[in-house]
Write a structure and sequence with these properties.
It is a single chain. This protein has 6 helices and 35 strands. The chain has 519 residues and is α+β, with helices and mostly antiparallel strands. Strand 16 and strand 17 form a beta hairpin.
Length: 519
């Protein structure tokens, strides 16, 4: 109410509210709602996709329902594309009116332009013919969107309805109380959404099999593949994403925690698949839940120039890896590296393994020493090069060590250390010869654990107790490369007991490569 004097008359003016309603922070609330919706929607309706090449099974619905779904899709897509321009028209209308007053119908129209396309998408999903994956295919969650590059963020915001909403709200100056309420509402919603997103994804270790051994094996054949050793079926095939790119799993090793692994992941690919030039890798944590679902987690290392070909974890939890990278004169150079602290040594490291808590043994770097000093002929003592990881690479003593190896170690690969100083080694066959799995105590052969009738052993993994072993077997069915083909499936997993008798059985057959295996 305002009182003014004009001459002797007293004029009383009272503001009359008509159809307009004061909306001092409407545009700011609209902008906040739009931004929060982008966070809330993926949590409320997590998108899914089908990981297989077959056609999904489509259930029949009535023609009217199918037509309604098509109409909802067309209108929703049109409104989504036209949204920024329609909001711009509303903003111009609001700017020409009283800056602090926005008609209620305009407020409802602006909110409808943002909400209606999303509602039509939901309606389309409900009305569309239901689909399910064909037999043998595995549904999987879409990878969570990562933080995009700065340029992509800028471009997406320029063409977003959110930009128009913010520009429309610039002519309004909200009071302090309205701003505080807006900020508090945003914080509460974000915290609730993050709680909903994080709590269900807390890692839950997979249950063991009835005999106490891990139920799942993990294959690293470009993508993490978990095999249920109880049912003999693949439980999950997972395509890992880092940002917007598909990552390639190159190597994997189990830690002492159930369901937790260390994976060597290739981030970028070079111009030549036969060269390491241009390749970039990184070590990541990989988890497998109670249902066998694998998921790539946090990065454990920085960017590594080259390709990680092997990962191994010591009983104390220290991580080592073998890296191939392009060196001088375009020649491939091999490195052995460890984390915590991060160090690398030039070494022939493809088959490296932990000899003890401080020593990395390199079975690819073999040598001999005559047992009789000064003798130029045998008998010889075989040894493997070793790295003392307690010393920095600049110290020559770090690569001056060696550890005993079995005699004729040149035909042995894939050493697998076991508790009590024992080691399993594979002796590969060729043509008429057969592949064998041999057990050693130190450098002394104890037993021939297994002799294959066909195919070749390409990977080994032990359970945490060291009493059971998984063997990855390549049946060598390729007629151009196979030395001793088996026929049937291309690959097998064999489970072996190291108790007397060395009983073994096939627990899985399939077409997924078993050259990278952990248990």
């Amino acid at each position: 109410m305002k009182i003014a004097r004009e001459g002797r008359a007293v004029v009383l003016s009272v503001p009359i509210r008509g159809p307009q309603r004061v909306q001092p922070v409407f545009w700011w609330w609209l902008a906040a709602a739009y931004a929060l919706w982008e966070i809330v929607l993926p949590v409320l309706v997590p998108p899914r996709r089908i990981m297989c090449g077959g056609m999904p099974i489509v259930h029949r619905v009535s023609p009217a329902r199918r037509a309604a779904a098509d109409v909802a899709e067309v209108i929703g897509d049109s409104l989504y594309l036209a949204g920024p321009f329609l909001l711009a028209m509303i903003a111009v209308f609001a700017a020409r009116s009283d800056g602090a007053r926005v008609p209620l119908r305009v407020a409802a129209l602006g909110f409808g332009l943002l909400a209606l396309p999303e509602a039509l998408v939901v309606a389309e999903d409900l009305l569309a013919p239901p689909m399910e994956p064909p037999p043998g295919c595995l549904p999987e969650r879409e990878p969570e969107p990562a933080v995009l590059r700065i340029l992509s963020i800028a471009l997406s915001w320029v063409v977003s309805p959110l930009t128009v909403v913010l520009l429309a709200g610039l002519h309004v100056r909200p009071d302090r109380g309205s701003v505080l309420r807006l900020v508090a509402a945003i914080v509460v919603v974000v915290l609730l959404v993050q709680a909903v997103r994080i709590l269900p994804e807390r890692p839950v270790g997979p249950p063991p099999a009835d005999d106490g051994t891990p139920r799942y094996a993990v294959l690293g054949n470009g993508m993490p593949t978990t095999v249920d050793l109880v049912t003999g079926r693949i439980a999950h095939e997972y395509v890992p994403h880092l940002g917007t790119r598909v990552a390639q799993l190159q190597a994997v090793a189990a830690t002492r925690r159930p369901g937790e692994y260390v994976a060597g992941v290739r981030l970028e690919r070079g111009p030549d698949e036969w060269s390491t030039r241009g390749f970039v890798s990184r070590l990541h944590r990989l988890t497998v839940d109670a249902d066998g679902q694998a998921k790539l987690g946090e990065a454990l290392s920085g960017r590594l120039t080259g390709v990680v070909g092997r990962v191994t974890v010591s009983p104390e939890g220290r991580i080592a890896y073998a890296l191939s990278a392009e060196g001088h004169d375009n020649q491939t150079q091999s490195y052995a590296g460890v984390l915590a602290p991060h160090r690398e040594w030039p070494a022939k490291a493809h088959g490296l393994y932990w000899r003890d808590a401080h020593t990395l043994a390199l079975p690819d770097d073999l040598g001999t020493t005559p047992l009789t000093p000064g003798s130029a002929t045998g008998p010889f003592q075989w040894w493997e090069a070793a790295i003392d990881v307690r010393l920095p690479p600049s110290d020559p003593r770090s690569t001056a060590g060696r550890v005993p190896a079995p005699r004729e170690a040149g035909s042995h690969t894939l050493p697998l250390p076991l508790p009590g100083g024992r080691t399993l080694r594979v002796r590969h066959g060729s043509y008429a010869e057969r592949s064998q799995l041999l057990l050693y105590e130190g450098e002394r052969k104890v037993a021939t654990v297994l002799t294959l009738g066909c195919g070749d052993i390409v990977s080994l993994a032990a359970d945490p107790s060291g009493r059971h072993v998984l063997l990855g077997k390549d049946n060598e069915n390729d007629p151009t490369a196979g030395n001793n083909p088996c026929g049937g499936a291309s690959y097998e997993l064999l489970r072996l007991s190291l108790a007397p008798g060395f009983n073994h059985k096939v627990v899985w057959r399939g077409e997924s490569s078993v050259h990278e295996l952990t248990w």
